[in-house]
């Protein structure tokens, strides 16, 4: 009975590790105004992050792609300026990666 329980727990742990999000990106608002409707898309996942106040930040997790992918950040500044598309390049060997991107006053999004 103990061996069966151990096997079930082991399978559950392996599956959790396999499908667990392993990479993290923090998005920092350095624009001086509120950023509205922030969304991050990448690795087959879209995460709505809401609004980011001036000087604030939000974080989201994303998986590891099978080949290569990009993480895009979308939204618009308080004055209506849309964020210029940013692409954070992600490759299949990226595990437990942590990146920081900054939203600038002109709407550009760049890696810190």
**CATH H-level homologous superfamily name:** Domain of unknown function DUF5300
CATH fold annotation: Immunoglobulin-like
How many discrete domains?
1
Biggest sheet character: 4 strands, mixed
Percent in strands = over 45%
Radius of gyration, in Å, reads: 17 Å
Number of helices: 1
Number of strands: 8
**Ends apart, CA distance between termini:** 52 Å
Query: H/E element string?
Result: HEEEEEEEE
Percent of residues in helical segments?
A: 10-25%
- The overall pLDDT, averaged over residues, is 82
Backbone shape: elongated
Structural class: alpha+beta
Ranges where pLDDT stays below 50 over 5 or more residues in a row are: none
CATH architectural category: Sandwich
Q: In order across it, which strands form the biggest sheet?
A: 4-1-7-8
């Amino acid at each position: 009975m103990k061996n069966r329980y151990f096997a079930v727990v082991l399978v559950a742990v392996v599956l959790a590790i396999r499908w667990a999000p392993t990479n993290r990106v923090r998005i920092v608002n350095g624009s001086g105004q509120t950023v509205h409707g922030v969304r991050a898309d990448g690795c087959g996942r879209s995460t709505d992050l809401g609004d980011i106040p001036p000087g604030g930040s939000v974080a989201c997790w994303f998986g590891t792609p099978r080949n290569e992918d990009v993480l895009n950040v979308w939204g618009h500044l308080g004055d209506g300026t849309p964020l210029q598309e940013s692409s954070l390049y992600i490759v299949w060997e990226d595990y437990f990666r942590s990146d920081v991107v900054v939203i600038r006053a002109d709407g550009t999004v760049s890696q810190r």
